[in-house]
Amino acid sequence: MELGTINQIRAKRDSIREQIKSLNLSDQDSETYGNENEYTFKGIIAGIEELLTDISTLTKYPQKFIKVSTYDERISIQSYLDMIDNDLEIPNNYISHFENLKILIRNYNVKNISERQIEFENEIEEVRKVKIQLQQMLVETKELKDNIESESTSVDKKFEQSNQKLQEIESELESILERKNELIEESGDLETINTELKIIQANATENLIEITESLNESKSNEKLITSFANKVQDREKRLDLLEQKTQENNLKLDDYEKERKSILQEAKELIESSKKALNYKTAEGISASFQSQYDSANNKRIFGSWIVGAVFCVLGTLGLGMWILQAQSDNIGILIGRISLLPLLVTGAVFCAKQYS
Fold first, then answer.
1. Which among 93, 125, 321, 356 has the fewest CB atoms less than 10 Å away?
2. Is the whole model's pTM more than 0.90, yes or no?
3. Could you give the C-alpha distances from 33 to 19, 37, 38, 304, 334, in angstroms and in order?
4. What is the pLDDT confidence band of residue 55, given thresholds at 50, 70 and 90?
5. In terms of C-beta density within 10 A (0-12 exposed, 13-18 middle, 19 or more buried), how is residue 247 classed?
């Protein structure tokens, strides 16, 4: 027969255990709780785990639980578990409920129930499994340590830190082995040790992750260093080639400088020669120009035509004068008009004479 109160107690038990798995118990090592500061955070969690084990024994056998408890007591257990579940990380909010739950569970004398011994043995078996897992993780961690040392020396500092943590794990394992025998006789300390084992397992897992990351980082760094070394070698080869080409260019520059000086000297000599030749050529050009003009003008047709033109203008002037003299003296306008034609013929005769000259 399943009762609602028992099912609700189981649900709260499972919820609290899930929360405990994700707790970091080292965050509140220095804090104490209780009226006399008699509890540490780890101690409270260990006590809660022990109470949850007793409650598991009771809920596993509902008929016996019903016989030894009342409805109000089961409601109280559910209420106390609810308070703890809501504020698990803040012990001050439920410390009184935790102590009341201890008193209530103690009245059932669960530890003397034969079924409680079966639950205890199951817990011992879980402890053994955790121990084997931790030992295997320790072996794997040591192998990773050897691999990291052979891969690269750049992770020495991180490895030293990991080694310290490994030593802590080994010391914790030794303490666990010593306390294993005590667990058989002292069932009250079982939950505390179980909690510590889970913390150690979580720490070992974190250390394994850190070591794995360090190994991957060292391998990545090795590739980077190898790539960098290859690039440096390539740069050295290019520098040697560049130095060789620079030497060749320097030799060519020396040859070019010598050639340039030679050409410059030759150019200076050519400029001097050109200056001298230019003076001669200028005089020769002027003389040739005069000679060309003379040859052009010394043409019988050209200067003959200017003479003919001048003679024609002179004859025209004479004929015009005679025409003017024959005009009637009483017509002054006609006389002035004919006289005004004389300068035109005289100007033409003068122009032809100048062109001939």
1. 125
2. no
3. 20, 5, 6, 147, 154
4. very high
5. exposed
